[in-house]
Design goal:
single chain; mainly beta; Jelly Rolls; 12 strands
């Protein structure tokens, strides 16, 4: 059976892969440092999934928000409700829930999954979405990256073009 993952979902390059390199701090290394992913259009999708992987962590924390955006800058953002899961090695789901913000901890070998429905973005009267995170307690070098997928594509073509704006 074929799942046709690539046909039904669109991988979006939302931030530099350089964060995977040793010594590069995903969170910037100081309290209050921000991560803002690129802004994506939800026009042709039913949802978006953000996957944050932390290969080497520390003791710090960060707050994650999924934000509806009014435009591609974004000029105005509103945090919306999203589903989250924390997965630790070896394949252990440590937390699952729904919230408008989620406090992540910078642990070794940890994956966070954040999922938002396009309807949550549309409720705000917006079409665009991005991930925003703020480091609450610094952890030193927390190495990792964040990837995103648009899910439930409305037009299943070989190439739907860029969705980053």
């Amino acid at each position: 059976m074929s799942t046709k993952f690539l046909e039904n979902n669109h991988l979006v390059h939302i931030m530099p892969i350089a964060h995977l390199a040793a010594g590069n701090d995903l969170w910037g290394g100081s309290s209050g440092a921000n991560i803002n992913s690129d802004v994506m259009s939800m026009k042709n999708a039913d949802g978006a999934v953000f996957i944050a992987t932390i290969g080497q962590g520390g003791t710090g924390t960060g707050s994650v928000f999924i934000c509806a955006c009014d435009d591609t800058t974004p000029t105005t953002t509103v945090a919306v409700s999203f589903r989250y899961a924390k997965i630790q090695a070896p394949d252990t789901i440590a937390a699952v829930g729904e919230a408008t913000s989620y406090l992540v901890s910078f642990e070794d070998d940890c994956v966070y999954v954040f999922e938002v429905d396009a309807a949550k973005i549309a409720e705000q009267g917006y079409e665009f979405v991005h991930l925003h995170a703020t480091e609450v307690a610094p952890a030193g070098a927390s190495e990792g990256t964040i990837a995103a997928f648009l899910t439930g594509l409305r037009y299943k073509e070989d190439d739907i073009g860029t969705q980053v704006t």
